Task: inverse folding
């Protein structure tokens, strides 16, 4: 392992729907599983685990960001710009409903980034984002002129 890998376990109310979304739509290879209990997925080298826990599934509360209702509880990936654009097209083609359609924040300014939010079949929110300049990922001041 050349870098730390992220591990996230999250609830789902239908393991086959999770398999269809994470494995089918997002293209995450499957790892181990305990039938009826959980499934491991490889999300770009990170281990995410869908656990059957229907009582834990509910939509997250949202906070206002740029006039959008951003789900407070969410996870996702930072992608290269072209990969982010391709994923947006793939999600549209698969008719995955967006919580927030792909859009660009701070266009032409420090921290320029693309973001989009989708919800899996169990109401888990995922954000996929990208930065024009990878050095802006942890930049403290965004939206200022370069």
Result:
């Amino acid at each position: 392992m050349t870098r730390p890998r992220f591990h996230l376990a999250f609830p789902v109310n239908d393991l086959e729907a999770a398999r269809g979304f994470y494995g089918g739509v997002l293209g995450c290879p499957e790892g181990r599983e305990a039938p009826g209990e959980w499934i491991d997925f490889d999300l770009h080298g990170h281990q995410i685990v869908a656990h059957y826990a229907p009582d834990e599934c509910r939509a997250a509360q949202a906070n206002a960001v740029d006039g959008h209702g951003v789900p407070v509880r969410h996870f996702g990936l930072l992608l290269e710009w072209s990969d982010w654009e391709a994923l947006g097209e793939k999600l549209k083609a698969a008719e995955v409903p967006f919580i927030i359609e792909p859009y660009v924040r701070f266009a032409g300014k420090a921290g320029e980034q693309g973001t989009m939010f989708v919800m899996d079949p169990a109401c888990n929110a995922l954000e996929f984002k990208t930065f024009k300049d990878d050095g802006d990922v942890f930049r403290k001041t965004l939206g200022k002129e370069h």
About this structure: The chain has a mean pLDDT of 93. The chain has two domains: 1-56, 58-146.
